[in-house]
Design a protein that fits this description.
eight-stranded mixed β-sheet, 514 residues, 19 strands, alpha/beta, 25% helix
Length: 514
């Protein structure tokens, strides 16, 4: 289904205002081929908190010590922690496009940030697929579906998929946009401190106001204004993305001798400015949770904490995971994730089932009692069974596809030139397989699979750091049977979703110089 068809089908219930009441009277039911719900039954509110570039170990409940996150940790104690939660991509924009649409990148075309041809042309063996940088309005988002069901919604903070007034949050179903635009950073001026010079963050803040605090203030105001109607708050912080800028008093605190002593727990947990940015984010979350409690909304609100990709390699550490932001190794895509849903989730529980960002769309619809639009393809699965204590989903595997280049490798990437080259990935059970497309397409594919270095296979149960490549005969745990099984499934999935995976899609680069 495209957006035009969706809007036609949902016209009867469109138009709910942030200043008005529900479009239905109490107890009135509505159903058509698009959706079905009953207004007389209380529907949950949603607070979806997305942190930018926060690493897997950057919160206390995941084992971090130097960074202090008492409010996020409290949220973890009150809800369910997902230990195998993944973003759909290893960088910002595609992750957001995937969970907003509920679809893999091959369906909306946002694979990366900016150009897909990053790094020197002479070092790229393939001509990558052209990247899309805006989320087309033909794609139906969960905000549009929930709005048609009477929800009022706000996007506050980073958008990164186009500029208003043509491709901003309000063109994708949100009633309110606070500060969201095409770029990945706050805007201009002093970045995290007012004046922001951001035309979508109005009114301008007083000189010296901190952006993270401002977004938390705006979130609280939105909750207060809409406390009597079902709402969806998408609080998408710019923090902790670079540039690293924090309030001086917090930065001073993380430079005290007591805090400096905590830096020994993880090698790169040592940046006081980064720690202070996390601290401000956590404080805002605490204030939002307190407001929900004051308004007696805490039992009626689903709260989700999630991050868009792995931590930035120069700021933090994902150990024992391999890699960082921009890599399809675990450190680039595995995320800290919490869901709190009072009276539906047993507090203090952990789920180890692999889940991924495209699962949010169907989860929100089921929680709200809204059917998906007819013809709308959703690539994820509802997590509601897991939230209720079940231990599996119907799918067996999750997938990634990245037909692009990201420069800036390091000791944990596959090579020093790129964080990642074109790659496709499957995780099934404890196994994870990576298919590197340069070697696969140019060095023989199946015919030379034993020698072309195209495939990596890891047992994440025993090797979470992805060091022992079981696809290679030199490994003591060499497993060609599992390699071939997963590779066949990965290629079948690529073909099923139209993921570019041939030389016709990504020709050999004549400018490559090795």
């Amino acid at each position: 289904m495209n957006r035009r068809d969706f809007l036609k089908q949902s016209a009867l219930v469109a138009g709910a205002s942030i200043f008005g009441g529900s479009v239905f009277g109490a107890g009135v039911s509505f159903s058509n081929k698009t959706m079905s719900f009953r207004v007389g039954k209380k529907r949950p509110n949603f607070v979806f908190i997305l942190i930018d570039d926060m690493g897997w170990k950057d919160v206390g409940f995941m084992g971090g010590r130097y960074y202090e996150t008492p409010n996020i940790d409290k949220l973890a104690c009150e809800g369910m922690v997902f230990s195998n939660a993944y973003a759909n991509a290893a960088n910002c924009a595609p992750t957001r496009a995937c969970f907003l649409t509920g679809q893999h990148s091959s369906r909306h075309g946002i694979y990366t940030v900016g150009s897909s041809a990053r790094g020197a042309s002479s070092t790229r063996r393939l001509i990558p697929v052209t990247n899309t940088t805006t989320l087309g309005t033909k794609h139906v988002t969960f905000a549009e579906v929930l709005r048609s069901a009477g929800y009022v919604s706000a996007s506050m903070g980073k958008w990164h998929m186009g500029n208003p007034p043509t491709h901003g949050p309000c063109e994708q179903g949100f009633n309110v946009n606070v500060g969201g635009h095409a770029a990945g950073g706050p805007y201009t001026g002093d970045e995290y401190f007012a004046p922001y010079e951001n035309p979508w963050l109005l009114p301008e803040g007083p000189v010296g106001e901190y952006l993270t605090d401002r977004l938390s203030d705006e979130a609280i105001s939105f909750i207060e204004t809409n406390k009597d109607k079902p709402f969806f708050l998408y609080l998408t912080h710019y923090a902790v993305h670079t540039p690293l800028e924090a309030k001086q008093d917090l930065e001073d605190y993380y430079n005290t001798p007591e805090k400096v002593a905590d830096r020994t727990t993880l090698p790169k947990h040592n940046n006081a400015t980064y720690a202070a940015m996390i601290h401000s984010t956590d404080e805002g979350i605490g204030r939002i949770m307190k407001k929900l409690e004051e308004l007696k909304l805490d039992e009626d609100t689903v709260v989700i904490f999630f991050c868009d990709n792995g931590g930035y390699q120069n700021c933090t550490d994902m150990y024992p995971l391999r890699g960082a932001k921009g890599m399809l190794y675990e450190g680039g895509i595995r995320e800290p994730m919490i869901v709190r849903w009072t009276n539906h989730i047993k507090p203090g529980t952990t789920c180890d089932v692999p889940v991924i960002g495209t699962d949010f769309f169907p989860t929100f619809l089921e929680q709200a009692g809204v059917k998906k639009p007819e013809g709308k393809i959703l690539d994820g699965e509802s997590l509601v069974p897991l939230l209720r204590g079940e231990t599996s989903l119907s799918r067996e595997a999750i997938f990634w596809h990245f037909p692009a280049y990201l420069e800036g490798g390091d000791s944990e990437s596959r090579d020093w030139t790129f964080r990642t080259r074109p790659v496709s990935v499957i995780r099934k059970g404890k196994w994870k397989l990576l298919q590197f497309l340069e070697e696969w397409l140019l060095d023989g594919g199946w015919g030379t699979i034993e020698t072309n270095n195209a495939i990596e296979l890891y047992d994440l149960e025993t090797d979470i750091g992805e060091q022992d490549n079981c696809a290679h005969s030199s490994s003591p745990n060499y497993n060609p049977v599992k390699r071939d099984e997963l590779l066949n499934e990965l290629i079948a999935w690529q073909n099923s979703v139209g993921a570019p995976n041939t030389l016709a899609d990504m020709p050999a680069n004549p400018g490559y110089r090795g």
